[in-house]
Amino acid sequence: MQSIILWLDSLELYFQQMIRTTIYSIGLGTLVLGSGAVATSVKEPALTPKFSHISSDTVKIAQSTINTAAIEQSVFNQINNYRASKRLPALTRNSAIDNQARIHSQNMASGKVPFGHSGAQQRLKAIGITYKAAGENVAYNQKYSDPATQAVQGWLKSSGHLANIIGNYNLTGVGVASNSKGQIYFTQIFLRT
């Protein structure tokens, strides 16, 4: 059985530092996680978001179709279900946030940017929504029949990711992308307006 390495890449944007820690190994596929939080105010007026066009939400990999839109919806539903189980208000999905999360996942999947939170401040600015606090969770995995559940369950087991999931946020966006290696990249951005 192939070994799976679970990495936690926690970036606390608020403190401007990156911590990388190997957590543990398990079997069957790879799951890598990352989280970040920002607790700053935006003093600028609302900005116009920058949009990128996505060629396709569905990518063929090794004769299997990965429906990234369905995976994004599954992540969103699972996060809100978890919040409901803790008697927290549901997050509202926002298309501008989705777009920036999706672009970041695509950039990580293609190798344009390293796995993690590089460019987080630019993503937040490009969303164009004035916010009081923001957080971001990232992950990637491969070889799982339910990659959304693997990513969400990994986030729930990590204190940094969990803090974002149960945090005092009201808006969210989810972006998923895959690459030719079969790796599926996830970005979820949280905002409090």
Classify the secondary structure makeup into a structural class: alpha+beta
Sum up the overall morphology in one term: globular
Low-confidence stretches: 1-30, 36-64
Q: N-to-C terminal Cα separation, in Å?
A: 46 Å
Mean pLDDT: 74
What's the Cα radius of gyration?
16 Å
* Discrete helix count: 5
Quick recap:
The chain has helices at residues 68-85, 95-110, 120-127, 147-156, 159-165; strands at residues 3-12, 17-27, 30-38, 58-61, 64-67, 92-93, 133-142, 171-178, 184-192. The chain has 193 residues and is α+β, with helices and mostly antiparallel strands. The longest helix has 18 residues, at 68-85.
Describe this structure in words.
This protein has about 190 residues and is of the alpha+beta class. Helix content is about 30%, strand content about 35%. It is built from 5 helices and 9 strands, in the order βββββαβααβααββ. Strands 2-1-3-7-9-8-6 form a 7-stranded mixed β-sheet. A hairpin with a 5-residue loop joins β8 and β9. α1 packs parallel to α4 and α2 packs antiparallel against α3. The longest helix is centred in the middle third of the chain and has 18 residues.
Observed structural traits:
disordered N terminus, two-stranded antiparallel ribbon, alpha+beta, single chain, 193 residues, 9 strands, seven-stranded mixed sheet, 35% strand, 5 helices
Topology (SSEs and partners):
Layout: E1 3-12, E2 17-27, E3 30-38, E4 58-61, E5 64-67, H1 68-85, E6 92-93, H2 95-110, H3 120-127, E7 133-142, H4 147-156, H5 159-165, E8 171-178, E9 184-192
Parallel strand pairs: 1-3, 6-8
Antiparallel strand pairs: 1-2, 3-7, 4-5, 7-9, 8-9
Helix pairs in contact: 1-4, 2-3
